[in-house]
Design goal:
Blueprint: H1 2-20, H2 31-43, H3 45-54, H4 63-86, H5 94-118, H6 131-135, H7 141-167, E1 173-179, E2 191-193, E3 197-207, E4 212-220, E5 223-233, E6 238-246, E7 251-262, E8 270-279
Parallel strand pairs: 2-8
Antiparallel strand pairs: 1-3, 3-6, 4-5, 4-7, 7-8
């Protein structure tokens, strides 16, 4: 049972790594399934392997306490891995974080298997379900503690999935933003003249998990003022560049829209705008 559980947490870690790769190598259509797998890998798998490596022998720690210890060790491991990744070139991003968690799980799992196998069979810790107590309808307090802990974990995961669904976590998206002259989110132009070029910096970040081709149009209602692209971005890559447009009509104010299209579709995917005072 212990060997099977170590194999299971290792397989789950491999699946999480495959899902974290650009494009996702496993056909998991639901974002909630991806999120559930990620939570299990981050909050349980490395700690479970670590507690078996630390305590492979039969002792006073029972199954419920080992489950709690698995979650606690996993939570303690997350900031340590984050500090390590922050000092490495990869940084704290989805792929490196999942890879580090999976690597910690595999390393701890291998150590746990070696230590557990070296013990005599009678000294090895094994999962045991108190079927005898259940048959007598007189389970021990520790059994009820384990049942309560399992229910709390299940309800916690269900709550997280509900919040994630309502908040749209895990869904693919494109970041689209404008920067001012100092490449900051501010200081945008608010005045211009007819025939005078105006330049802003446009930023695009592909979070779609697949390559996407983007095209930008600048319009004031029905009139095309400027355009840029197409720009093809791989998953996780970004583009920042100047985009110029020329105002054709005076007005106070005029709404200038920045329409971002993807993959040749005729409907804008993202929209931003600026209000400008346009003089003759």
């Amino acid at each position: 049972m212990v060997q099977l559980s170590l194999l299971l947490v290792s397989v789950l870690s491999v699946m999480a790594v495959l899902l974290a790769l650009p494009g996702g190598l496993l056909p998991v259509p639901l974002a909630s399934v991806r999120l559930l797998l990620g939570l299990v890998v981050v909050l349980f798998c490395p700690g479970y392997a670590a507690q078996v490596a630390l305590f492979p022998r039969r002792n006073g720690i029972d199954g419920a306490e080992r489950l709690a210890l698995s979650v606690g060790l996993s939570l303690a491991l997350v900031p340590l891995l984050a500090l390590m990744l922050d000092q490495l070139p990869w940084g704290i991003r989805l792929g490196p974080v999942v890879g580090a968690e999976a690597g910690a799980t595999w390393l701890a799992g291998a150590l746990a298997w070696v230590r557990w196998r070296r013990l005599p069979p009678e000294d090895r810790w094994e999962w045991k379900i108190p079927w005898t107590d259940l048959a007598r309808l007189d389970p021990s307090p520790r059994f009820w503690l384990g049942i309560g802990l399992a229910l709390v974990l299940v309800l916690g995961l269900a709550l997280l999935l509900t919040v994630a669904h309502l908040a749209g976590w895990g869904e693919s998206a494109t970041e689209f933003y404008l920067l001012g002259p100092d490449r900051q989110a501010g200081g945008y132009p608010y005045r211009g003249s007819v025939g005078e070029p105006i330049t802003v910096t446009v930023g695009i970040v592909n979070r779609e998990r697949v390559p996407v081709e983007y095209r930008l149009e600048v319009v004031d209602g029905e009139h095309l003022l400027g355009q840029a692209g197409p720009v093809r971005l791989e998953p996780g890559t970004d583009f920042e560049g100047p985009v110029s447009f020329i105002l054709a009509w005076p007005g106070d104010p005029i709404r200038v829209q920045f329409l971002l299209y993807r993959n040749g579709l005729p409907v804008p995917y993202r929209t931003l705008w600026l209000w400008l005072e346009v003089a003759e």
